[in-house]
Design the sequence.
């Protein structure tokens, strides 16, 4: 009985702007993004390596989104289902942004299941709920910090798709060799 109550409580996790990982389409997300001040700056299929593209994965970069301190956001779709939202924030040498955003996430989602203080190491805070993972990453030597909301099952399928297209392209015989 306790398991059901805990699962039900976590089912209420609110994603950014009410978006639904594993459900929403690019059209739906663009409407929400534009309603919140965002401007789509770039879009297209995922580049796996050099000129190898995955046609199953589509994404777009958004600027001017109504999120405090945000540099830009990336929205990724696997077979037209939103599987990842990535926010990129500036990061100073003291990693103050990590603590500030981490405090906001704790207030919203509770204590993280994994936490590493950003002192002589990458700062990491992870929250998990079923197929959803929220990860705050502040690399020790970087000017950017990353907050990702990921549907883990779809991410796994997207990574398998990347490997399929990468191997398919690399296994083609090269002319002249």
Sequence:
């Amino acid at each position: 009985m306790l398991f059901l109550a805990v699962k039900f409580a976590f089912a209420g996790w609110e994603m950014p702007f009410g978006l639904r990982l594993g459900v929403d389409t690019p059209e739906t997300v663009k409407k929400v993004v534009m309603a919140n001040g965002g401007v789509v700056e770039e879009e297209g299929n995922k580049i796996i390596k050099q000129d190898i593209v995955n046609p199953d994965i589509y994404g777009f970069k958004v600027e001017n989104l109504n999120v405090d301190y945000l540099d830009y956001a990336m929205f990724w779709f696997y077979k037209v289902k939103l599987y990842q939202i990535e926010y990129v924030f500036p990061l100073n040498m003291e990693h103050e942004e990590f603590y500030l955003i981490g405090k906001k996430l704790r207030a919203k989602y509770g204590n993280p299941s994994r936490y590493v203080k950003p002192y002589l190491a990458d700062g990491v805070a992870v929250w998990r709920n079923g197929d959803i993972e929220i990860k705050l990453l502040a690399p020790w030597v970087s000017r950017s910090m990353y907050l990702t909301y990921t549907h883990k099952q779809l991410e796994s399928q997207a990574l398998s798709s990347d490997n399929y297209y990468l191997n398919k392209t690399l296994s083609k015989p090269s002319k002249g060799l």
